[in-house]
Amino acid sequence: MSNQTALLRPATIGSKSFSNRLVLAPMSRTSAEPDGTPTAEMASYYAGFARGGFGLLIAEGAFVDANYSQCYGNQPGLVTDSHEAGWRTVVEAVKRENGKIILQLIHAGAVSQFVERAFAPSPVRPMGEMLQGYGPRQGPYDTPGELSVNDIRAICSAFVDAAKRAEAAGFDGVEIHCANGYLLDQFLTPETNLRNDTYGGTLEDRLRLTTDILSMCQQKTSPDFLVGVRLSQAKATVQDYFWPNGLEDARVIFSAVAEAGANFIHLASDKGGYTYHSTAKTGENLTAFARSLTGLQVIANGGLQDIGLANQVIADQLADFVSIGKAAMLNPDLPKKIASGAPLRDFTFEMFKYGVSVNAQLKWEAEQRA
Ligand SMILES: Cc1cc2nc3c(=O)[nH]c(=O)nc-3n(C[C@H](O)[C@H](O)[C@H](O)COP(=O)(O)O)c2cc1C
Predict the structure, then answer these.
(1) Cα(293)–Cα(279) distance, rounded to whole angstroms?
(2) Which atom of ligand 1 approaches the CA of 274 most closely?
(3) For a Cys-Cys bond, which of 53, 80, 260, 326 suits 215, CB 3.0-4.6 Å?
(4) Arch. (CATH architecture) of 11-345
């Protein structure tokens, strides 16, 4: 038994209990059927993390409507009966391993690599280039069209319908993706939201679509079903972004999502890792602040396969859970390894040499064994 005891302590969110504080971070593996239906391969992929001891899995971002929400080819969706049936198979496989699983719901907005013409809060061309390894499109982003108020209301309804389908499919909850430069974060970010209607202007107005989605999802699902939110400062294509007014912005954002009924806050990081991205421009630790301000359960993220640091984050009560992304792909049994003190396999971008899909990973792993 290792001495990482804080990480291995059980915890709760709302009425749900979790065997430990280790969460699988959502990771888009673009392994669904071309129409977005989750596959049997995805069911066995997610079941592997439950068998490996993760207290909670957050499944990759599923697109929420057939209009402009899809980010990538072969991304799973949750719009049709076929999507719902595919996800039910995933959930059942995870439950057979006594796992808990939440589905992330996402709208790509301006950074879709899938739709012919992307739509966003304002016609602002995203910085950076489309993500490599994802398709079908590559290269610089185009300037998106501007969403009408009716489009925005339809997007809110699409998130709510997807949350209802997620509950019907057996998920323990949903995570609303308002991070990393995707649609809801485009609304939140002043540089990409130039609107002067009710969805733009003050930070509260820029948060309105997210808070509407959170409160409607809570109202339209049962009290046991979790509705959380993922936030971040960094964008997938702009690493060095920090909320411009530091702690003051954090206060408004965390209070608003708590007020809207979020059950948890998941603060995402990127290449700079937890310590870098979860620090406000004004210097404060944001997961600890979110926790003390709202009393909600908070999930920390970013490079926390550094198990000493991850354990410290929990032991020092900076967060309630830690989510693990890249390292989990090569260590689906990471919690069991922590418990036994076994070494972790080091993540390497080499594993994406055939692509980011589960199948591409299996091909690379077979090559490593040969
Ligand atoms: C292949 C891959 C796919 C990802 N897809 C998503 C996603 O669908 N939704 C999301 O919020 N974050 C996504 N992320 C970000 C991770 O959830 C996580 O925040 C990031 O990898 C940092 O955590 P880590 O240092 O433990 O890897 C993805 C990351 C990777 C490597």
Answers:
(1) 15
(2) 25
(3) 260
(4) Alpha-Beta Barrel (3.20)
